[in-house]
Amino acid sequence: MTKGVEKHALACVKHFAANSIENSRFQVDVKISKRALHEMYLPHFKRCVDAGATAVMTAYNSVNGSWCGENRELLLEILKERWGFEGFVLSDFVFGVRDPKASKENGMDLEMPFSMVWGRNLLDLVKRGEIKESLLDSSLERLINPIFRLPDSDFYGKDMLGSQEHRIIAKEAAVQSMVLLKNANSALPLSKSDEIVVLGALANTPNLGDRGSSDCRPDYVVTPLEGLKKRSEGSIQHFNGIDSVESCHAVSEADAVIVVVGYTYLDEGEHIEPPKLSDFAHQIPPPPAIQWMFSNAITKNIWKNLNKKILTYKDRKNQRNNPSGKSRLGKGGDRLSLGLSECDVHLIEQASLLNDRVVVAVMCGSAITMEEWKDFPQSILMMWYPGMEGGSAFSDLVFGDRSPSGKLPFVIPKSSKHLPVFDRDAKAITYDLWHGYRKLDADNNVPAFPFGFGLSYNEYSYENIRISPDLIYPDGIVRITLDVRNHGRFMGEEVVQVYVSVPHSNIERPLSELKSFKRVAVEPKSVTTAEIDICVHDLAYFDEGLDEFVVEPADYIFTVAKFSGDPNGISIRASILERSLIPE
Which residue from 35, 371, 405, 567 has the least number of CB within 10 angstroms? Predict the structure, then answer.
């Protein structure tokens, strides 16, 4: 994606770094070891930087006691020096800069979305000799040079927005991302001639998720109900719930029932308002119309005190009007529960009692625990927030025009107790190596649905695994070759995953980790050969004593699997030799 964006614009990677809590992002300090930081929370940023990203946006939170917008270790020592990043660093909007001098000296290049903290202070700091003018020159170079690489803006007309080509991509992205978690008795796909009842308000609601900084406003949104109606050759009835004789009868008589449940931007998403606006009083300048009144040293202090009182009053008023603390802008922030609402669970239970072919479609942006209801329906499909063509993609999968091929990007536990402790209002938290499927493996907790899991209408098997080269060294590349067999009748795509374990490692490591994957198209009733390359350096651990990644000379087990912990995965063992053993 980064490479694609950079062909047309400037790719900005955010939020750097360890930004994993929404509600308390303005206050939380993340305590983290160097190893956990480099192995778990930085690799995705490093990949984007290596792919050519021009900009990196800092996070609001602090890491090891230093705000990310002025964190010397993150911005200078790691990003610009260790990684050799030549682009520019910008702050998150409005509250991303705390201290003008510390942020400028420690790697920030641009305050966003306008000059607020810097505009009132940088010039004075330079005049007093507290900041070197060369730091500003360096930032200007980083900001200006990328502009000359941009293509001619005349090439991008408004007619390109929502064009046919873009709509095709939107639909394909939705098709490939949806994950089939359960399909008992081959309940899916349905026949286009089936009499179908669709339940749930979300079935007929444009639901694109967050309305914060990731908000998008397409010309139209195909809802699940609209998508089904466009493709169906039978009758489609829709009810928000089973609360009448008519709806009860329709559900019991239908060939199949589809229940659409989940979340919206009201339940999860960006939480805009900081905990206390008064905490940021010193950063907010006077309104432009009266700025002249607070331009000298004495009146500047008057504004700071006045603004503090104004915002303290606003905080108290907000607390009285909104004692729950939920954002008045309607953004849900971090969820309090990983489960569905009681109403959604009740609707699933009702439908399953009345009909023996129930499909549950879940709309959400993250994990949903399902233990209390997953045994009731025949099929479960994760739709996510599927975009403008989501309903069209959904109907393609439901009616078998396409076979599901998406895989879970996280583990779904049987209980939230199997995950790290989470406090969305935390002021301090410690992150370590153990989260997600790695933590469940370490604690011997069996997941409800494993990381990387996803069913298809086909059955696939893996055969004839090979590895090359014969001698593997730390600076080399490992190639895994295997045959993928499609036993089904559908044209399909299988996401082949490679997990790596080091059974006799001298350091504490996860049981196994995903190191590579590849989407492979396979014709019905046929076999195709897949090749997956893994850079040996990606198998390294971060040695805190040496302050660098180290590839451990040891025996490694490479397992090709459909998901983490797949008992039917096929493995091959190989040794990685020390660099000193490379033959001349």
Answer: 567
Q: What kind and span of H or E run contains 261?
A: strand 256-262
3-state SS of 41-74? HCHHHHHHHHCCCCEEEECCCEECCEEHHHCHHH
215 CB contacts (<8 Å, ≥6 apart)?
208
Tokens of 438: 């790695």
pLDDT digits (tens, 9 = 90+) for 166-197: 999 999 999 999 999 999 999 999 999 999 99
Residue 410 resides in a domain? no
Q: Rounded to whole angstroms, how far apart are CA atoms 63 and 71? A: 8
Q: At what angle do helices 245-253 and 342-354 cross, to 10 degrees?
A: 60
> For residue 78, what are its two tokens?
């790691």
Mean pLDDT of successive 10-residue stretches along the chain, which has 584 residues: 92 95 91 97 97 97 97 98 97 92 96 85 91 94 93 82 92 98 97 98 94 85 98 97 96 98 90 62 61 63 70 68 48 84 97 98 95 97 97 98 98 95 92 95 97 98 96 94 97 97 95 97 97 97 96 96 97 87 50
Take residue 364 and report the two structure tokens written for it: 């959400």
Strand partners, 535: 477
Residue 430 lies in a domain: no
**β-sheet bridge partners, residue 519:** 495
Residues 486 and 516 in one domain: yes
pTM of the model: 0.89
Interstrand relation of 526-535 and 428-431 (parallel, antiparallel or unpaired): unpaired
Residues 64 and 204 in one domain: no
Residue 341 lies in a domain: yes
Domain count, the chain: 4
**Strand pairing category for 12-16 and 55-58:** parallel
Residues 60 and 117 in one domain: yes
Considering the domain architecture, whether residues 487 and 538 belong to the same structural domain is answered as: yes
Beta-carbon-side half-sphere exposure of residue 111 (alpha carbons within 13 Å): 23
| Residues 6+ away with beta carbon under 8 Å from 26 | 60, 61, 95, 274, 275, 279
Query: Domain for residue 143, yes or no?
Result: yes
* Residue 478: CATH number of its domain: 2.60.40.10
Cβ contact 475:563 at 8 Å: no
Do 107 and 190 lie in a common domain? no
Answer yes or no: do 234 and 338 share one domain: yes
Query: Based on the domain organization, do 197 and 117 belong to the same domain?
Result: no
Residues 228 and 366 in one domain: yes
